[in-house]
Amino acid sequence: MATKPGASLLSIELVYRAQFARFLHVATAITGDAERGADAVQEAFAKAVRRRLDFRREGSLEGWLWRTVVNCARDQVRRPQRSSSTPEPVVPTEPDHDRLRSWIAQLPERQRLVLFLRYYADLDYRQIAHALGIRTGTVAAALNAAHAALRPLLESTEVPHHA
């Protein structure tokens, strides 16, 4: 018996429940706003449910959902924001991280996305490649370029120590 293309509602719901916090964390980092990040995750899962028959089982369901979440978060950034502020990637809010947040915001979009998926979502290169629709070599190159761009900034900055 041949496997039908598509994903079941139950399988989508199981991934959603298991990975919601990670999806939200990355979407919030991409959009720069918790509310917009949540909107992106909700929109992604609504799309996934509507388009579940489009899932061709060429990769994992989780990877397909990651791609949908990332694309919806990117769409949120492109939409006019409710306030006049420009979205900035969300990095931990401790004072030490203010400079890092601004440096990450200056990276090209692909480098930011690869950083978020690697370090916020803890995805491996293959999963990141699938989520972004790029090759694993491109993931490695983008991550290397991001590290190279951030390294001199981090090395030249004395990080304050907390008591």
Q: Gist?
A:
The radius of gyration is 17 Å and the shape is globular. It has helices spanning 9-31, 34-50, 61-78, 98-106, 109-120, 125-132, 136-155.
Lay out the secondary structure.
Layout: H1 9-31, H2 34-50, H3 61-78, H4 98-106, H5 109-120, H6 125-132, H7 136-155
Q: Please give the count of helices.
A: 7
Helix content: 55-70%
How many strand units? 0
Q: Mean of the pLDDT scores? A: 82
Q: What is the general shape? A: globular
Summarize the biggest pleated sheet: none
Alpha-beta classification: mainly alpha
Strand residue percentage:
under 5%
Structural Rg: 17 Å
Q: What is the ordering of alpha helices and beta strands?
A: HHHHHHH
Low-confidence stretches: 90-95
Distance between the termini: 64 Å
Explained architecture:
The structure is a single chain. This protein has 163 residues and is mainly α. Helix content is 66%, strand content 0%. The protein has 7 helices and no strands. The protein has helices at 9-31, 34-50, 61-78, 98-106, 109-120, 125-132, 136-155. Helix 1 packs antiparallel against helix 2 and helix 6 crosses helix 7 (136-155). Mean pLDDT is 82; it is low at 90-95.
What descriptors fit this protein?
163 residues, mainly alpha
